[in-house]
Fold each of these.
Amino acid sequence: MIFADSRGACLYWGPDRIAIYNEGFAVSCEGAHPFLMGHGFAEAFPELSANIDPVFQHASTTGQAVNVDNIQLFVNRNNYLEEAYFIGQFIPVRGEDGEVAGFYNTVLESTTQVIFERRRQVTDSISSILPHSIEQTLSTFARCLQANPYDITAMLLYTFDDHVHEEIDNLFLQSSIAVAESCGCYLGKANLETSQGGLVPLFRQARQAGRRVVLDLEDDTSSQYRGLFDGVTWRGFGERPRFIVICPLTVSGELLGFYVQGTNPRREYDDATERSIAEITARLELRWVESSSREQALMRQQLAERRANETENRLRSLAQNAPLGMYQIGLDRKIKWANDQFFDITGHDRSRSDMEHFREALAADERENDRKIMEDLLGGASRTVRDVRLCRMWEPSIHGKEGSDEHHAWILAVTFPLMENGEVTSLLGYVTDISRQKWAENVQSRNAALATDAKRRQEEFLDITSHELRNPLSAIIQLADSIIKSVETEREVVPDAWSKIINEIKDSASTILACATHQKRIIDDVLVLSRLDSQMLSISPAPARPADVVASTLKMFEGLAEKHKIELTSSREDGTQELRHIDRVSIDASRLMQILINLLGNAIKFTANEPTRNISIVHGIRMTMPSKFETRFGDLKWVSPVGPKQLTLAPLGSAGAREKLYVYYAVEDTGIGMSSDDMVRLFQRFSQAQSKTHITYGGSGLGLYICKELAQMQGGGIGVASRQSEGSVFVVFLETEAATASGQLEDQRGVTTTNLNTADGETYSDSPSTNSFSKGFPLGKSAAKREAASTEPEGYHVLLVEDNLINQRVLAGQLRKAKCTVTIANQGEEALAILEQSTYWKHDIIGNVSAEDGLKPISLDVVLMDVEMPVLDGVQCTRQIRLLQSRDVITGHVPIIATTANARQEQKDSIFAAGVDRVLVKPFTVDELMLSIRELIP
């Protein structure tokens, strides 16, 4: 039975009660196991014999089982005599002679439950303390602790007053248990900051740590404190505990005092003991705060009562002389009281108290609403705040100004119910004359509307100017490009007599193209300047590769460089190992490209006629702002001020701020160079190095000024170094941070693209291999291969939607020369009709084309959609196409490239929002268009 019993069980057999027990019983008698096995009870448990012998005797005498419930026993285990409680049975077992020969004992230890309940009763009694004064509360708290002498063998409770001078005692003993005044740990008062006696050093330690300090009296490191507890009359078992716990009492970071407790000497200091002490201190802190709040409330109440009479007279005087009108309305709907200002502001007759007469002072359309509001308030509604127009007129003191004529007077009326026992007894309120504010709001609204309208008209003017300038430029550039390509294609098959004429035609077309490109740069500079002046230019950082921006910029000038036999090179300066691995940074690539275009264009312009024609772009990344920059022309001269003006780095997808970095680009040429005096005027608006520079080299004097502004808007700066007849170097740096994005560049719409679109219209390719622009590689060597690749047959079928007949004819011709099939629509409705005849249309549902008609649907590849068109414009047409796709009338995704002369970012964003895949800003070349088509269509 013993070894089959799932409980702890033991058989005590014979007169010596020899023990035989199972594994479960071995756990309960840990201190006596394994000695107990085969030995008598009294031999193994000498400390328990006195308590258990009567149980054995009773069971033997009566022959009945004896139940024990939570019997307290002290078991020698864990190397000390431990307080324990057990639930069990002693069942007499009879031998062969019928007499009781032994006892079958089952046991279950209940120590944890008994001690938990004992401690819980203390915390419950603390929780039930009613709010009184702080002294009463702390005294009651001490009485609650008296109920558990076993776990709280001694106690000290101190209060702390931080309002006294630091050199005066601020720590006061409030109550104690079992600690006499003669004990070393007993201090009636002390200074927490300076005292060294008693437990004060431990108090400072607990305050600094912000948590309880546990003092182990048996530890050698605590020997200096052990003698402080000599003479303490320890409660419970009368033994000195091993552990003393010091707890700081705090609320919202404010120190209230300290609680010191001696623990149970016959129990370990375990998690349960720690939780019990934490519960005691938490409940004490709560009761303490409640009592403090109650004391403060009583003090405030007494103070209020003392001052009530004085305050009432004072308030009456203030109300009577207040700058606003005050009033009280009774349940009879009459004015019970009002100050003079009420009558002055409203114009109400002082001799009349009825509200109906008061409403005659209000504008006619306000009266019914006022009556309804008053009835709602008398019915218990909450307070109302409203602007009320009066009958009387108000004239501003400003004469001869717009808006200075008479206006209706206005008041701000606040009315609220006065409640007693849940019932409304009267209405209180006040009125303020706000006629001047209403008049000012009126004037301000008119001014704001005028300013908004002026800005809108300014934006419209810039948009119209941009549109009207770019549209014809697009045709000019495409025609000139077409002439050059036609001449290149046909020059070998024409007679020699025509070759000179053809060369002249090519030269003329090249000149037209160069002039148009120059005109476009001037237009771009003027439009950027207009946006800078109007504060309409935005900076939008996004992940980008610095090398890609260089590559895209250099590709634009490849042909011009070859024409003037200029060698263009690019390279990256290797920095530290850490910076060498940074591939992407957060920059506005389009704005950076605008800067590089201006710098590179100037470098080519001033180098084209020199005997040595070399231009290089060196870029890199630094950890600090490049305040010094050495060049072959000497130290760089920075334009002042250098630093951020309005840059805010956009978040790049990961939490936390990144380390600030600086990306820089140096454009160096072997051009004509400049003197020190020339460099002073460089970065000013409408200013060039010399007054006659524009006559020889052209230009508007805006490019470098715009470069400076764009650099400073991005937290950076620009500088220059130069020598006459040797060349110049321009260095621009931008504030940035490392970007975590990988793969292709993502634009702000989240669409992966390889184009960098500037805010003012240019579209530049981001696609050349990084190997094409490796360190020191001349760009001209790969031009022929790329030109050959660009003229390969494409075989695309393009739906050209364009209302301008010139642009339509020119672009269609260019596309056909690029081996494309072109179908033309004059506006959006015609485009939809053509789509209905295409393979995109689901002909078994809707459409005029079907297999039964014997007509083959048109196989379109891409739609080239102009934005500004009559009848149905490009944005509306795109929305219709995407709607038909969502309804499964059009199957698959129709690739759409929008073309527009509207270059502002918000305009492009609205075009993207309609559902287009790409935006090309006019003017553009057919090569740029074909590049976009190849990127868009697999």
Amino acid sequence: MSVVGIDFGNDTCYISVARQGGIESIANDYSLRETPSYVAFGEKSRSIGVAAKSGQMTQIKRTFFGFKKLLGRKFDDTQVQSELNRVPFEIAKSETGVATYNINYNGKSKQLTAEQLTAALFTKLKETAETALNVKVNDCVISVPSYFTDAERRALLDSAKMSGLNVLKLMNDTTATALAYGIYKQDLPEPDKPSRNVVFVDCGHTGTQVAAASFNKGKLSMLASGFCNSGGRNFDEEMCKHFAVEFSTKYKLNVFENKKATMKLLTECVKLKKLMAANTNKLPINIECFMDDKDVSGHMDRAKFEELIAPHLAEMEKTMSDVLAASGLKQEDIYSVEIVGGSTRIPAIKAMMEKVFVKEASTTLNADEAVSRGCALQCAILSPVFKVREFSVTDIQPYPIKLVWDNTSGEGQATGDMEVFPVNHPVPFSKMLTFYKTETFQVTGEYASDVPYPEKHIGVFEIGDIKPNAEGGSQKVKVKVRVNPNGIFGVASANLVEKHEIEEEVPEEMEVDEKKDEGDKKEEEKKEEKPAEGAEAKTEEKMDIAEPKPEDKKEVKMVKRKKLVNKNVDLPISQRVNGQLSYERLQAATQEENSMNNQDRNEADRLTAKNSVEEYIYDIRGKLCEELEEFMIEEDRNKYSLELEDAENWLYEDGEFSEKPEYQKKLNELQVKGESAKRRRYEFETRPEAINQFGQCLQLAQKVVDAYKGGDEKYNHLEAAEVDKVQKAINEKQDWFSRMCADIQKLQKTSDPPVLASQFMQEKDQFWQMGSKILNKPKPKVEPPLPEGVSPAGGGDAKTEKKDESSDKDQASESKPAEKVPEMDVD
């Protein structure tokens, strides 16, 4: 089972995995830990991540980014409209009002949603994780901004399903950071402090998130959170505006009219921003062939940069102050202030944090990878595969949610409402509400305050199959509403509580003796009153305890009694919610993603086959006139050179868009002659060594055989039959060896050899495997005789004597022959 955490960012993504050694961030196919959130569409395939961003300038209108901001939103959404000015590609409005991206893929025009582009990115991240883990990846935990609304969270889950990921939990960025911090610090508060309060600031690409958390004995509780839309992207844009005005005056260029020039300037501004974080001097910016074939240049220092972003810094400061107030913490209660996110490297932001929290900003965690690591930890906690120290995580709901209901079966007018989850309420959490209804009714979930989404409406939940009771009155309906671990609101269940009158037979004991006093009658009347109270458990308990004994002679008769019982009946729930796709549309989008992914793989295989042909042409052509020149007849070499030239022309003309089998066929045709020449050269270089080794092996064996025949004491223990066997093998191998060497002497370099070097080595190994067992047979050792009366030390016979002495007398009398054992050893 995979244990993967994904930090899904607007600009970049990170993947962390849990292994036996701990949590680690993994690299992609470019050996980089960060994967850009970019998806580009070519003629026949998609490029995702690093490849897509690298080729952005060459196909700027077909490379898409920033789609995270459009998840679950309509085209007319104000946030979508603001994004239109930031991107160089077209975003259109579909028939259903959804924002879509127009693409041309595999010869067809398509409209893809932000959810589908996100699914494409997730597919790439999934493949990266599978390559690193060498196992199929399904289960994961994905990060989500804490300010994401219900509709955006549902849309993100749909994207994950399209890519084949099973999301165990959507985890807020700040909560993931807090979890990573808690595990890193081992949750060990100081002895005199029962808890540790920490503030986390995540200044990302599109906004800043602030959260306060409390750690206490293995528990993480989020206290309050807040956010603002000021982030690294806003800082880049302020710099871009400044230089656009400067270039307009200095070079007479209208930068924002040219999308490509705007993207170039933004890229350079990002680089300059990073340099200014560590340098107070005035730094240059230079762009060649910026626009209209003009080179541009400018300068900026940190003071000017901080002046440009002052409004955004003020917004961030207000957010931090609001979170501190909402958490109920005082400045002296804060143990640490932790910062993550790329933009927190800016000195002005660190200074502002110190001003608000009166604590110096700490960089305990990796600013870029903390979120993905926290997600991987959460995945490990949820996974049965990993044994992780218990660490309870309680998140919070950033917006208040209320429930609105009506008394009609249609849309109707609301007749009541209730705030069920106030702001910063713990999550996950469920609440049970009781209604009295006579027919199907609806409840509507809404946000009770302003949210960063066009609608406060979450969804409508219809609870059906309700009818009046037997008297025509209202039925009692219990409705459970819940905010699940993903931060998504919904109606979890609905039950109809019906009261049913049932008859049951209960035993009644009768005394045989007719003489009963009045006290016994009263006691019996009391026993009859107990079941009438409707306590079913009590009736069963009475039956279990009052089991009659065999010796008791009593008459028992069964009597029928009525009682009321509650019966819960599950009611059907249907929902219409914002952001979530219908089952049919989700299945269609999933199939389309699978189809495009298969097309990408097929195209990758096709290009790999094409590149193999191209590489082989360049490789073999360069060797024909050099190292392979002596191993091909001149006529064949010239003819083969023409074949290579024709293959190259075909590759760039008629064969440019051929399929994989055609490339493989072409490669095989070219390799027939090319590889033959390579083999001849290889044999020419390696054959002398193989012949030499085989010849030395035969000579060595013959030398030993001759020594044996000459009466050498070193080999006189060998058996004659076995030595003759070796001699016979030597003669056979020598005959084969001499014939092969004679043929090779006549061999031309341009001819294929009659025998390969590997065959010489094989013959040598077979011969030596047989001969070495005979010729290397060790000579048996002969021990010198022992002095008379001395027993062998530690020998088995001594043990035998000891055993004989401890036996009975008959065995002792038979042990005398054992004294002759040393003489037998000498013989």
Amino acid sequence: MEQLIGRDEELAALASLVDEVHLRGAAVAVHGEPGIGKSSLLRAAADYGRQAGLGVLQTEGVEAEARLPFAGLHRLLRPVLDAAPRLPAPQRQALNAAFGTGDGEPPEPFMIALATLNLLTEKAAQQPLLLVADDVQWLDPPSCDVLTFIARRLSSDPIVLVGTVRTGHQVPFTSAGLPTFHLPGLDEKAARALLAEHGTGLSYAAGERILHEAAGNPLALVELPVAIRTADEAGLAAAPMPLPLTARLEQAFSARLGGLPPVTRDAILVAAVDDSDDLQEVLAGASVLADRYLSIAAVEAAVAAGLILFDGLHVRFRHPLVRSAVLQSETVSRRHAANAALARILTDEPYRRTWHRAQSIGGQDDTIADELEELHVVSLRRGSATEAIWALERSAQLTTDSAKRGRRLLLAAEHAFGLGRADLVDQLLIKASRTTLSRLDLARMEWLREIFNDGVPGDAGRVFELCGIAAESAAAGDTDLALNLLLGAALRCWWADTGPAARARVAEVTESLGQAAADPRYVAALAVAEPVLRGRQALEILDAVVIENVSDPAAMWLLGMAAHAVGAPVHAVDLFGRAETRLRQQGRLGLLSQVLVMQSIDHLELGDWDRALASLEEGRQLAQETGQPIWDTGSLSVRCLVLGLRGQADETLAMAAEVERAAGGRRLGDLLACVQVARGYALINLGEYSQAYDELRRAFDPDDPAFHATERFHGVMYLAEAALHAGRAHDARAVVAALEADATVTPSSTLHLHLCYARAVLAEDDAAEDLFTAALGADLVRWPWLRARIELAYGSWLRRQRRGAQARQPLRSALTAFDIIGAARWAEQARGELRASGERTGPAAPGQPDPSAHAALSVLSAQELQIARLAAEGLSNREIGERLYLSPRTVGSHLYRIFPKLDVTSRTQLATTPGLLSAG
């Protein structure tokens, strides 16, 4: 490896990653100040990688390219794109669209990322790879996102990724949880050695001054001596206060510009504003700027001055500070002229031509503004909403008409919402509010303001306001906007108590849009606003839906939301499951994260606890990856429910307190209800029945902040169980009587089936058996957890009636289900009841589930459990990788670790592992 003065430790660390690439992949981020030697370190690592036999792929961020989507990614992948035709069709098409070489639907950014990952792993299987990315902070955002996606997934592939980031810049790559190291300044010994190489002829005083000002910065130690040789040394020494080092270096580079010929300054100015490093393009643009033909000779003086490098095909600045110095040393009008010159020569590249035209003026220009608005569609087609937002925002700046300017800003805000960027939405809305907007545009602004502000406590006034705006929008013919506004109003009713009048108003205005009843937002608004009183109507709509005919996963998500709201978890998991599959296929990971989190409660209710936890964990990871701050108190409250049932009481109670602190001030009844139910789960697992009853009881008190119209339904049978053991049956019967009134209105299967359990458990002995028989006669095929709970309660009742022989059958059935589900506390109860009934409970009989089966599965992480289940279902490593956004090699590595944990040696044996497939 190239020897860099004072960098032995850092070089050794990177060499170690390269040397171990056959054993494991890795990604690392290198942070440092400008000029600290990040690029030199990266070049040395690339040289070492080549010597070690790795294929080296390189890219770098360039400020001028930051608005050109996927420019950095294309530069990285250019040497390996010959393998792209071997990718699966959706991935190949996504990559082609990103690089502007394909047609079709706009690709999802994460489909592009998956295509990149698979392209690289395909190549790495033939030859290990070293990926080096310099100045990641200046990569175009889509390229940076893809690089971050890849970096998180390299542990099992023979790929090393090293990216450098300038200190002070926050980009996804820096917050991806990667190993990082900060590149410090050189120590005094190394600094003196470097200065000795480049400071020949300096006086002692000048050398000491440079050492002091450079503070170990290698670029300063190399460049400041050059500046001193061409400046008045006495004047330099007399400066009362040195400039910040970055400015000092820029000044050193700027000093060399003054002595360059005018044509050379034209050429390097064009290079500084260009988003390409093509030498012929730079010379063509410079020729327009200079109004004369310029040859390569025009840039040779800049090479001699140490400002640029070129190889006959490409030109690049020796350091990003040189580019910065060039731009700062020129006037605004000169920079505009350079962009205009490039725009004139880019006749066959309309995207870049318009981009440079937009940078060539300081005032307003409606022609360019219109072109930019059209340009945003091209950005979307290439999978870059970020660039589309920029194009619309710049278009608005150039627009003379106030109303048109406002519409463009609102459209940009809608795309920012799609990215989950609440901060950017707010910025754009503030700008739009200063324009002249039509009533419909004002309504659209209200919807955009509402999107990230659900759950204002008791704000019935805002709900009525939104309903009024929705009615106006509908009257003006914009039903689409009306439905968006009504769904926002409904969500306010769901998260926090807005009162019956507000809920009724949302339902009333929604029902006035009868012509839109087939739109999934219609049923979602009804169900979310009035889940009890409009539950039957919503369920009738859901029952009429032919799921196979719904192709849009966003529509399935809304239908699933409606089903969850009205307490129909079977409908919900079916809809969410289909949405999950389609979203994975399409690479829409942002919405996928929400689907995964939302479906967890329904899987929990139906007894698929492992699936609930796996969905929750993956949803959390994807929410972080896609930059969505949804893993907050809402997601934590769902996690409380999962952990509470699984018996992790201490963690549940601590997390519940955290959620309560966050949600209590806003009186978010939905979250507070989940907190109380989760506490009840945890305390029942601890055998603290009286305290469990007190916690659960709060969720059923209309005057308590933790009351919620339908979330309380998830706690009904646990309230009855706690009451039975705590001697509180009388009070619990009063709660159940109130719920019976709700049951005459709502078809909620969660409520009705929980009541079946509660009625039987709380009944007097002379009525109990008929109620248990009726409960077990309900359709419980998709409800194994609830059925097992009823069987345990019934078997226990029979045993107490001294009917031990009859008790054994329901107790055995309950025990089997509890072992499969992983309900350890209730499984132990069932075993105890079986022993009390006179049956010994030893090892499982042949053909029966092994009680330890779930314990074996519990050693797997959530992701390992997903992979094991999919492998058991017969999916190949590649198919699993496509579903979970992992490389096939990573899937294989996980299976290698999974097999010994489950004491199996093949995929065939996985399929017969007790509890694995049934857990799904």
Amino acid sequence: MQKELRQRFNANFSEAKYKAYMSQLNNLHPGALDFRNAETPIFIPKGFTKKMLDACEEIIDVIVDPRFKSLTERAIPADINIANEKDYSDFIAFDFGICENGEGELEPQLIEMQGFPTLFAFQAFHTAITCSYAEVPDNYSAYLNGYTEESYLRLLKDIIVGDLDPANVILLEIYPDQQKTRIDFYCTEDVLGIKTVCLTKLIGEGDQLFYEADDKKILVKRIYNRLIFDDLYQQENLGEIIDVNHPWDVEWVPHPNWFYRISKFTLPLIRSAYVPATFYLDEIKEIPADLHNYVLKPLFSFAGMGVVIDVTQADIDNVKDPQNWILQRKVKYADVIETPDEPAKAEIRLFYFWKEGWARPKAVHNLSRLSKGKMIGTRYNKDKTWVGGTVAFFEQ
């Protein structure tokens, strides 16, 4: 996007430098980096960054509206009834595609958002290593609103651990050592001093939760939640596990309800030049004649599962539960990142943190992804290079 920086990076690129870079990333926790890391970061000009941040503030206006919780109550599945919901989501992520509008200009378009964590700890290490590898100029930073690696990690710790003993705070996941994002769990342990605990290892006694470490039973007071309930319910042979719907005496960061409230479900509530027109399928009075310009998405899925890109009337007719689907106008990803072969498309995920006492969340950091397929994601980019996870550096 910044032509001179792109040309300089590409001219200086070599497979040997990339191999050394990947060696540094892998050495964070050998064997744990289980997703592809792209050869290049993204360099973002000030104007484009402002458009993304302005769009986020428009969306946040909707989220902080007193009516938001009542408007999103239907988003929470009937079989999920987790106690102690907060009035806000500690973490929000906004995914913007770098797109091309009708005039051929680059602009951000919101693809998805989630009231859920992402690779927060890993991305701090990743950014530092990438900054050195790419020789990023001093007037570019991956952090936002004046945050630095030090203040960002301090804020992360304040939100997740706060004034508790780290021993009483856990990162919760199902089979964490099998997850593709497990490197972030291990980096989180490094940064916060907390343990990663599998749901199958939690012990319930009365209204309290415990885990075992060093032959001791340790009380859980706060859960840094990385457990996606949709994923949990697809697991087989879990054996006997705690009833997550029991009113446990524990605080969730973020609370699982916000995974559903701030999600694809929220998109039809937003009106912004940088949010594609989106409609609940069951509320559409007349199906658009130009269906080929829309994407059909299930509300309650993740990682792009179930998305129909080339929509037909037959696809609409085959939906048995239209209240659980949205129809979203397509965006045109720009072939914006010059690479040695075909250009790559890009998405930028902005991290927003919401500390107790703040009226609104703040933008703090990002991760980005490059793709040469129809969609962003591993399954659409097999056997391709200059694709995968990366980080954006914003002009200051």
